[in-house]
Amino acid sequence: MTTAPYPPTGPLADLTPVPLYSEEFAADPHAAYAWMRQRFGSLVPVELHPGVPATLVIGYYTALRVLHDPVRFPADPRIWQSTVPADCPILPMTGWRPNALRNSGAAHERYRSANSAALDAVDLHHLRATVQRAARDLITDLARHGQADLVTQYALPLAFQVLNALLDCPPRISVQVADGMARVFDSAQGAGQGEAMISQALAALVALKRADPGDDITSRLIAHHTRLSDEELVHQLVTLYGAGIEPQTHLIANALRLTLTDERFAGSVIGGSLTVRDALEEVLHRNPPLAQYCLSYPPLPVVIDGVLLPAHQPVVIGMAACNSDPAVARAGRVGNRSHLAFSAGAHACPARTPAYVIAQSAVELLIDALPEMQLAVPADELRWRPGPFHRALASLPVRFPTSVPVPVR
Protein backbone atom coordinates (compact mmCIF):
# COMPACT_ATOMS: atom_id res chain seq x y z
CA MET A 1 0.00 0.00 0.00
CA THR A 2 2.59 2.52 -1.06
CA THR A 3 1.26 6.05 -0.90
CA ALA A 4 1.38 8.89 -3.38
CA PRO A 5 1.14 12.54 -2.35
CA TYR A 6 -2.05 14.54 -2.65
CA PRO A 7 -2.34 17.19 -3.87
CA PRO A 8 -0.44 15.67 -6.80
CA THR A 9 2.97 16.94 -7.80
CA GLY A 10 4.61 17.04 -11.20
CA PRO A 11 2.57 16.30 -14.36
CA LEU A 12 -0.33 14.80 -12.42
CA ALA A 13 -1.00 18.18 -10.80
CA ASP A 14 -1.95 19.60 -14.22
CA LEU A 15 -4.44 16.86 -15.03
CA THR A 16 -8.10 17.80 -14.98
CA PRO A 17 -10.14 15.66 -14.88
CA VAL A 18 -8.63 13.36 -12.25
CA PRO A 19 -7.67 9.89 -13.61
CA LEU A 20 -9.33 7.20 -11.49
CA TYR A 21 -7.40 4.46 -13.30
CA SER A 22 -3.93 5.62 -12.23
CA GLU A 23 -1.44 3.83 -9.99
CA GLU A 24 -1.26 6.97 -7.84
CA PHE A 25 -4.99 6.94 -7.17
CA ALA A 26 -4.99 3.22 -6.34
CA ALA A 27 -2.09 3.65 -3.92
CA ASP A 28 -3.94 6.06 -1.62
CA PRO A 29 -7.49 6.94 -2.71
CA HIS A 30 -8.41 8.39 0.68
CA ALA A 31 -5.75 11.06 0.35
CA ALA A 32 -7.13 11.68 -3.13
CA TYR A 33 -10.69 11.99 -1.80
CA ALA A 34 -9.60 14.56 0.78
CA TRP A 35 -7.78 16.55 -1.89
CA MET A 36 -10.74 16.31 -4.28
CA ARG A 37 -13.13 17.49 -1.58
CA GLN A 38 -11.01 20.53 -0.83
CA ARG A 39 -10.54 21.42 -4.51
CA PHE A 40 -13.90 20.50 -6.05
CA GLY A 41 -16.49 19.98 -3.32
CA SER A 42 -19.02 17.16 -3.72
CA LEU A 43 -18.69 16.72 -7.51
CA VAL A 44 -15.38 15.95 -9.16
CA PRO A 45 -14.41 15.85 -12.85
CA VAL A 46 -12.68 12.51 -13.46
CA GLU A 47 -11.62 10.15 -16.21
CA LEU A 48 -12.63 6.49 -16.11
CA HIS A 49 -10.18 5.69 -18.92
CA PRO A 50 -8.01 8.03 -20.99
CA GLY A 51 -10.39 10.25 -22.92
CA VAL A 52 -13.53 9.01 -21.10
CA PRO A 53 -14.75 11.81 -18.79
CA ALA A 54 -17.25 11.42 -15.97
CA THR A 55 -18.38 13.12 -12.78
CA LEU A 56 -17.53 11.47 -9.45
CA VAL A 57 -19.93 12.13 -6.58
CA ILE A 58 -18.04 12.26 -3.26
CA GLY A 59 -20.69 13.94 -1.09
CA TYR A 60 -22.83 11.48 0.90
CA TYR A 61 -26.10 13.42 0.74
CA THR A 62 -25.49 14.40 -2.88
CA ALA A 63 -25.08 10.71 -3.69
CA LEU A 64 -28.38 9.87 -2.02
CA ARG A 65 -30.14 12.54 -4.09
CA VAL A 66 -28.69 11.04 -7.28
CA LEU A 67 -29.46 7.45 -6.32
CA HIS A 68 -33.05 8.27 -5.41
CA ASP A 69 -33.73 10.30 -8.58
CA PRO A 70 -33.99 7.84 -11.51
CA VAL A 71 -35.74 10.44 -13.67
CA ARG A 72 -32.88 12.94 -13.78
CA PHE A 73 -30.24 10.22 -13.27
CA PRO A 74 -31.37 7.11 -15.17
CA ALA A 75 -29.14 4.07 -15.56
CA ASP A 76 -29.44 3.56 -19.34
CA PRO A 77 -26.05 4.33 -20.98
CA ARG A 78 -26.88 3.75 -24.64
CA ILE A 79 -26.57 7.33 -25.91
CA TRP A 80 -23.29 7.82 -24.03
CA GLN A 81 -22.08 4.43 -25.18
CA SER A 82 -22.48 5.43 -28.82
CA THR A 83 -19.79 8.08 -28.30
CA VAL A 84 -17.23 5.66 -26.85
CA PRO A 85 -14.95 3.46 -29.00
CA ALA A 86 -16.31 -0.07 -29.22
CA ASP A 87 -13.04 -1.49 -27.92
CA CYS A 88 -12.92 0.74 -24.83
CA PRO A 89 -11.91 -1.67 -22.04
CA ILE A 90 -14.35 -0.29 -19.45
CA LEU A 91 -17.42 -0.98 -21.61
CA PRO A 92 -18.03 -4.46 -20.16
CA MET A 93 -18.43 -2.72 -16.77
CA THR A 94 -20.38 0.32 -18.01
CA GLY A 95 -22.19 -0.53 -21.24
CA TRP A 96 -25.85 -1.33 -21.77
CA ARG A 97 -27.25 -4.78 -21.11
CA PRO A 98 -30.82 -6.07 -20.87
CA ASN A 99 -30.57 -6.25 -17.07
CA ALA A 100 -31.73 -4.30 -14.04
CA LEU A 101 -28.41 -2.52 -13.56
CA ARG A 102 -28.45 -0.75 -16.93
CA ASN A 103 -32.14 0.06 -17.37
CA SER A 104 -34.76 2.30 -15.82
CA GLY A 105 -38.55 2.32 -15.59
CA ALA A 106 -40.56 -0.73 -16.62
CA ALA A 107 -37.56 -2.59 -18.05
CA HIS A 108 -35.68 -2.17 -14.78
CA GLU A 109 -38.67 -3.40 -12.79
CA ARG A 110 -39.01 -6.46 -15.01
CA TYR A 111 -35.40 -7.54 -14.65
CA ARG A 112 -35.24 -6.58 -10.99
CA SER A 113 -38.30 -8.66 -10.10
CA ALA A 114 -36.82 -11.79 -11.68
CA ASN A 115 -33.45 -11.39 -9.97
CA SER A 116 -34.93 -10.52 -6.59
CA ALA A 117 -37.21 -13.57 -6.66
CA ALA A 118 -34.31 -15.86 -7.59
CA LEU A 119 -32.03 -14.44 -4.89
CA ASP A 120 -34.66 -14.19 -2.15
CA ALA A 121 -35.27 -17.94 -2.45
CA VAL A 122 -31.67 -18.78 -1.49
CA ASP A 123 -31.65 -20.90 1.67
CA LEU A 124 -29.18 -19.12 3.95
CA HIS A 125 -28.56 -22.20 6.08
CA HIS A 126 -27.71 -24.17 2.97
CA LEU A 127 -25.56 -21.26 1.80
CA ARG A 128 -23.52 -21.34 5.03
CA ALA A 129 -23.04 -25.07 4.62
CA THR A 130 -21.85 -24.53 1.05
CA VAL A 131 -19.31 -21.94 2.23
CA GLN A 132 -18.15 -24.32 4.97
CA ARG A 133 -17.52 -27.13 2.50
CA ALA A 134 -15.57 -24.90 0.13
CA ALA A 135 -13.58 -23.35 2.99
CA ARG A 136 -12.80 -26.74 4.54
CA ASP A 137 -11.19 -28.05 1.37
CA LEU A 138 -9.25 -24.85 0.70
CA ILE A 139 -8.00 -24.50 4.29
CA THR A 140 -6.97 -28.14 4.48
CA ASP A 141 -4.77 -27.61 1.44
CA LEU A 142 -3.37 -24.27 2.66
CA ALA A 143 -2.52 -25.57 6.12
CA ARG A 144 -0.02 -28.08 4.75
CA HIS A 145 2.15 -25.41 3.14
CA GLY A 146 2.58 -22.76 5.84
CA GLN A 147 2.09 -19.88 3.42
CA ALA A 148 -0.51 -18.67 0.94
CA ASP A 149 -1.84 -15.79 -1.08
CA LEU A 150 -5.28 -15.35 0.44
CA VAL A 151 -6.60 -13.58 -2.67
CA THR A 152 -5.83 -16.25 -5.26
CA GLN A 153 -5.72 -19.32 -3.00
CA TYR A 154 -8.65 -18.66 -0.69
CA ALA A 155 -10.99 -15.71 -1.32
CA LEU A 156 -11.25 -16.07 -5.10
CA PRO A 157 -11.73 -19.85 -5.35
CA LEU A 158 -14.15 -19.78 -2.42
CA ALA A 159 -16.32 -17.03 -3.93
CA PHE A 160 -16.21 -18.80 -7.28
CA GLN A 161 -17.16 -22.22 -5.92
CA VAL A 162 -20.01 -20.83 -3.83
CA LEU A 163 -21.51 -18.86 -6.72
CA ASN A 164 -21.22 -21.86 -9.03
CA ALA A 165 -23.13 -23.89 -6.45
CA LEU A 166 -25.85 -21.24 -6.17
CA LEU A 167 -26.25 -21.16 -9.95
CA ASP A 168 -25.64 -24.92 -10.35
CA CYS A 169 -22.97 -24.19 -12.95
CA PRO A 170 -20.80 -27.24 -13.78
CA PRO A 171 -16.98 -26.97 -13.88
CA ARG A 172 -16.68 -27.24 -17.65
CA ILE A 173 -18.69 -24.02 -17.97
CA SER A 174 -17.57 -22.18 -14.84
CA VAL A 175 -13.86 -22.31 -15.75
CA GLN A 176 -14.55 -20.32 -18.90
CA VAL A 177 -16.68 -17.84 -16.95
CA ALA A 178 -13.89 -17.27 -14.42
CA ASP A 179 -11.31 -16.58 -17.11
CA GLY A 180 -13.62 -14.12 -18.83
CA MET A 181 -14.54 -12.30 -15.62
CA ALA A 182 -10.89 -11.79 -14.68
CA ARG A 183 -10.29 -10.13 -18.06
CA VAL A 184 -13.32 -7.87 -17.70
CA PHE A 185 -12.53 -6.63 -14.19
CA ASP A 186 -8.93 -5.84 -15.04
CA SER A 187 -10.20 -3.40 -17.72
CA ALA A 188 -7.27 -4.49 -19.88
CA GLN A 189 -7.03 -5.06 -23.60
CA GLY A 190 -8.60 -8.51 -23.19
CA ALA A 191 -11.87 -7.16 -21.76
CA GLY A 192 -13.80 -7.58 -25.01
CA GLN A 193 -12.54 -11.12 -25.42
CA GLY A 194 -13.50 -11.82 -21.82
CA GLU A 195 -17.02 -10.59 -22.49
CA ALA A 196 -17.39 -12.99 -25.42
CA MET A 197 -16.06 -15.91 -23.36
CA ILE A 198 -18.57 -15.23 -20.59
CA SER A 199 -21.55 -14.94 -22.94
CA GLN A 200 -20.71 -18.18 -24.72
CA ALA A 201 -20.29 -20.09 -21.48
CA LEU A 202 -23.48 -18.77 -19.89
CA ALA A 203 -25.53 -19.50 -23.00
CA ALA A 204 -24.47 -23.11 -22.50
CA LEU A 205 -25.58 -22.94 -18.85
CA VAL A 206 -29.01 -21.58 -19.83
CA ALA A 207 -29.49 -24.39 -22.35
CA LEU A 208 -28.44 -26.95 -19.74
CA LYS A 209 -30.85 -25.65 -17.08
CA ARG A 210 -33.76 -25.33 -19.50
CA ALA A 211 -33.33 -29.03 -20.23
CA ASP A 212 -32.75 -30.03 -16.60
CA PRO A 213 -34.03 -27.44 -14.09
CA GLY A 214 -33.35 -27.65 -10.38
CA ASP A 215 -33.49 -25.70 -7.13
CA ASP A 216 -30.97 -23.04 -8.10
CA ILE A 217 -30.83 -19.39 -9.12
CA THR A 218 -30.47 -20.14 -12.84
CA SER A 219 -33.56 -22.38 -12.88
CA ARG A 220 -35.57 -19.84 -10.88
CA LEU A 221 -34.68 -17.09 -13.38
CA ILE A 222 -35.79 -19.35 -16.24
CA ALA A 223 -39.07 -20.21 -14.49
CA HIS A 224 -39.93 -16.63 -13.46
CA HIS A 225 -43.23 -15.27 -14.78
CA THR A 226 -41.45 -12.51 -16.72
CA ARG A 227 -40.37 -15.22 -19.19
CA LEU A 228 -36.92 -13.88 -19.91
CA SER A 229 -35.46 -14.78 -23.30
CA ASP A 230 -32.26 -16.80 -23.55
CA GLU A 231 -30.33 -13.62 -24.34
CA GLU A 232 -31.85 -11.85 -21.34
CA LEU A 233 -31.06 -14.82 -19.12
CA VAL A 234 -27.42 -14.76 -20.18
CA HIS A 235 -27.19 -11.10 -19.22
CA GLN A 236 -28.78 -11.72 -15.81
CA LEU A 237 -26.16 -14.41 -15.19
CA VAL A 238 -23.36 -12.13 -16.40
CA THR A 239 -24.49 -9.57 -13.83
CA LEU A 240 -24.65 -12.16 -11.06
CA TYR A 241 -21.17 -13.41 -11.87
CA GLY A 242 -19.88 -9.86 -12.09
CA ALA A 243 -21.19 -9.10 -8.61
CA GLY A 244 -20.53 -12.53 -7.14
CA ILE A 245 -16.89 -13.23 -8.01
CA GLU A 246 -14.60 -10.20 -8.01
CA PRO A 247 -16.47 -7.96 -5.52
CA GLN A 248 -17.14 -10.92 -3.21
CA THR A 249 -13.50 -12.01 -3.47
CA HIS A 250 -12.25 -8.59 -2.46
CA LEU A 251 -14.80 -8.11 0.31
CA ILE A 252 -13.34 -11.29 1.86
CA ALA A 253 -9.74 -10.34 1.12
CA ASN A 254 -10.09 -6.75 2.33
CA ALA A 255 -11.67 -7.97 5.57
CA LEU A 256 -8.85 -10.47 6.09
CA ARG A 257 -6.32 -7.72 5.48
CA LEU A 258 -8.02 -5.60 8.13
CA THR A 259 -7.96 -8.37 10.73
CA LEU A 260 -4.23 -8.88 10.04
CA THR A 261 -3.11 -5.25 10.00
CA ASP A 262 -5.39 -3.10 12.15
CA GLU A 263 -4.75 -3.16 15.90
CA ARG A 264 -8.44 -2.65 16.59
CA PHE A 265 -9.15 -5.97 14.89
CA ALA A 266 -5.93 -7.99 14.74
CA GLY A 267 -6.14 -9.27 18.28
CA SER A 268 -9.71 -8.57 19.23
CA VAL A 269 -11.47 -10.45 16.43
CA ILE A 270 -9.86 -13.67 17.57
CA GLY A 271 -10.18 -12.73 21.23
CA GLY A 272 -13.85 -11.88 20.88
CA SER A 273 -13.83 -8.14 21.63
CA LEU A 274 -14.78 -7.23 18.08
CA THR A 275 -16.61 -9.43 15.63
CA VAL A 276 -15.93 -10.35 12.02
CA ARG A 277 -19.15 -8.51 11.19
CA ASP A 278 -17.54 -5.37 12.66
CA ALA A 279 -14.54 -5.91 10.39
CA LEU A 280 -16.82 -6.33 7.36
CA GLU A 281 -18.67 -3.12 8.16
CA GLU A 282 -15.36 -1.28 8.48
CA VAL A 283 -14.26 -2.60 5.09
CA LEU A 284 -17.58 -1.72 3.46
CA HIS A 285 -17.28 1.74 4.94
CA ARG A 286 -13.65 2.51 4.05
CA ASN A 287 -12.44 0.04 1.39
CA PRO A 288 -15.51 -1.49 -0.29
CA PRO A 289 -14.61 -3.86 -3.14
CA LEU A 290 -16.39 -1.54 -5.56
CA ALA A 291 -15.26 1.88 -4.39
CA GLN A 292 -16.61 3.83 -7.38
CA TYR A 293 -19.61 2.57 -9.32
CA CYS A 294 -23.44 2.93 -9.49
CA LEU A 295 -23.36 4.81 -12.79
CA SER A 296 -26.14 6.98 -14.17
CA TYR A 297 -26.43 9.01 -17.37
CA PRO A 298 -28.49 12.24 -17.24
CA PRO A 299 -30.60 12.59 -20.40
CA LEU A 300 -30.47 16.40 -20.11
CA PRO A 301 -28.02 18.86 -18.55
CA VAL A 302 -28.78 18.92 -14.83
CA VAL A 303 -27.76 21.19 -11.98
CA ILE A 304 -26.91 19.62 -8.65
CA ASP A 305 -25.05 21.28 -5.78
CA GLY A 306 -24.70 24.34 -8.01
CA VAL A 307 -22.81 22.41 -10.69
CA LEU A 308 -24.11 21.93 -14.23
CA LEU A 309 -23.57 18.33 -15.30
CA PRO A 310 -23.63 17.63 -19.06
CA ALA A 311 -26.19 15.34 -20.63
CA HIS A 312 -25.23 11.74 -21.44
CA GLN A 313 -22.00 11.77 -19.46
CA PRO A 314 -21.52 9.20 -16.69
CA VAL A 315 -22.21 10.22 -13.11
CA VAL A 316 -20.34 7.80 -10.83
CA ILE A 317 -21.03 7.34 -7.12
CA GLY A 318 -17.81 7.29 -5.11
CA MET A 319 -19.08 5.00 -2.37
CA ALA A 320 -15.82 4.97 -0.39
CA ALA A 321 -15.46 8.74 -0.69
CA CYS A 322 -19.08 9.37 0.30
CA ASN A 323 -18.70 7.12 3.33
CA SER A 324 -15.80 9.29 4.54
CA ASP A 325 -17.62 12.56 3.88
CA PRO A 326 -17.09 14.73 7.00
CA ALA A 327 -20.81 15.50 6.91
CA VAL A 328 -21.54 11.94 8.05
CA ALA A 329 -18.25 10.28 9.04
CA ARG A 330 -17.43 9.66 12.70
CA ALA A 331 -13.79 8.98 13.42
CA GLY A 332 -13.07 5.74 15.24
CA ARG A 333 -16.63 4.44 15.05
CA VAL A 334 -16.81 0.66 14.63
CA GLY A 335 -19.77 -1.05 13.02
CA ASN A 336 -21.01 1.95 11.03
CA ARG A 337 -23.69 0.52 8.72
CA SER A 338 -24.71 3.76 7.02
CA HIS A 339 -22.29 3.11 4.15
CA LEU A 340 -23.23 3.12 0.47
CA ALA A 341 -21.24 0.00 -0.45
CA PHE A 342 -24.43 -1.75 -1.61
CA SER A 343 -25.79 1.44 -3.23
CA ALA A 344 -29.25 2.82 -2.40
CA GLY A 345 -32.56 3.51 -4.06
CA ALA A 346 -34.05 1.51 -6.92
CA HIS A 347 -30.69 -0.02 -7.87
CA ALA A 348 -29.58 -1.09 -4.38
CA CYS A 349 -27.92 -4.50 -4.45
CA PRO A 350 -30.51 -7.29 -4.08
CA ALA A 351 -27.83 -9.79 -2.94
CA ARG A 352 -26.76 -7.91 0.18
CA THR A 353 -27.73 -10.66 2.65
CA PRO A 354 -26.05 -13.56 0.78
CA ALA A 355 -22.93 -11.41 0.32
CA TYR A 356 -22.69 -10.87 4.08
CA VAL A 357 -23.26 -14.57 4.81
CA ILE A 358 -20.53 -15.67 2.39
CA ALA A 359 -17.94 -13.11 3.49
CA GLN A 360 -18.55 -13.45 7.23
CA SER A 361 -18.45 -17.24 7.11
CA ALA A 362 -15.31 -17.25 4.94
CA VAL A 363 -13.38 -14.93 7.26
CA GLU A 364 -14.52 -16.63 10.48
CA LEU A 365 -13.67 -20.10 9.22
CA LEU A 366 -10.16 -19.15 8.14
CA ILE A 367 -9.36 -17.29 11.36
CA ASP A 368 -10.68 -20.18 13.46
CA ALA A 369 -8.63 -22.75 11.52
CA LEU A 370 -5.37 -20.74 11.30
CA PRO A 371 -5.31 -18.46 14.37
CA GLU A 372 -1.53 -17.89 14.17
CA MET A 373 -1.72 -16.54 10.62
CA GLN A 374 0.37 -13.40 9.97
CA LEU A 375 1.20 -11.23 6.99
CA ALA A 376 4.24 -12.50 5.09
CA VAL A 377 5.27 -8.97 4.06
CA PRO A 378 5.13 -5.57 5.79
CA ALA A 379 1.65 -4.08 5.53
CA ASP A 380 2.92 -1.07 3.60
CA GLU A 381 4.20 -3.36 0.83
CA LEU A 382 0.74 -4.66 -0.03
CA ARG A 383 -0.29 -3.33 -3.45
CA TRP A 384 -3.75 -2.32 -4.63
CA ARG A 385 -4.69 -3.02 -8.25
CA PRO A 386 -5.31 0.15 -10.29
CA GLY A 387 -8.70 0.57 -11.94
CA PRO A 388 -11.52 3.11 -11.97
CA PHE A 389 -14.02 1.00 -10.03
CA HIS A 390 -12.55 -1.64 -7.74
CA ARG A 391 -10.65 -1.53 -4.45
CA ALA A 392 -8.78 -4.79 -4.80
CA LEU A 393 -5.52 -6.13 -3.44
CA ALA A 394 -3.15 -7.61 -5.99
CA SER A 395 -2.24 -10.25 -3.39
CA LEU A 396 -2.45 -10.92 0.35
CA PRO A 397 0.53 -13.13 1.27
CA VAL A 398 0.44 -14.76 4.72
CA ARG A 399 2.39 -17.34 6.68
CA PHE A 400 1.40 -19.68 9.50
CA PRO A 401 2.65 -22.87 11.17
CA THR A 402 2.06 -25.93 9.01
CA SER A 403 -0.55 -28.16 10.54
CA VAL A 404 -3.56 -30.32 10.04
CA PRO A 405 -6.25 -27.72 10.79
CA VAL A 406 -9.07 -28.14 13.26
CA PRO A 407 -12.10 -29.32 11.25
CA VAL A 408 -14.11 -26.38 9.92
CA ARG A 409 -17.42 -25.97 11.76
Task: Indicate the topology.
Elements: E1 18-19, H1 23-27, H2 29-40, E2 43-49, E3 52-57, H3 60-67, H4 78-81, H5 91-94, H6 105-120, H7 124-143, E4 147-149, H8 151-167, H9 171-185, H10 191-211, H11 217-223, H12 230-244, H13 246-261, H14 263-266, H15 268-271, H16 276-286, E5 292-296, E6 302-304, E7 307-309, E8 315-318, H17 319-323, H18 352-369, E9 374-375, E10 397-399
Parallel strand pairs: 1-2, 3-8
Antiparallel strand pairs: 2-3, 4-10, 5-8, 6-7, 9-10
Helix pairs in contact: 6-11, 7-8, 7-18, 8-13, 9-10, 10-12, 12-13, 13-16, 13-18
Account of the protein in words:
The protein is an alpha+beta fold and 409 residues long. It has one domain (10-399): Orthogonal Bundle (Cytochrome p450), CATH 1.10.630. It is built from 18 helices and ten strands. The strands form three sheets. It has a five-stranded mixed beta sheet with strand order 1-2-3-8-5. Strands 4-10-9 form a three-stranded antiparallel beta sheet. A two-stranded antiparallel ribbon has the order 6-7. The radius of gyration is 21 Å and the shape is globular. The two termini are 33 Å apart.
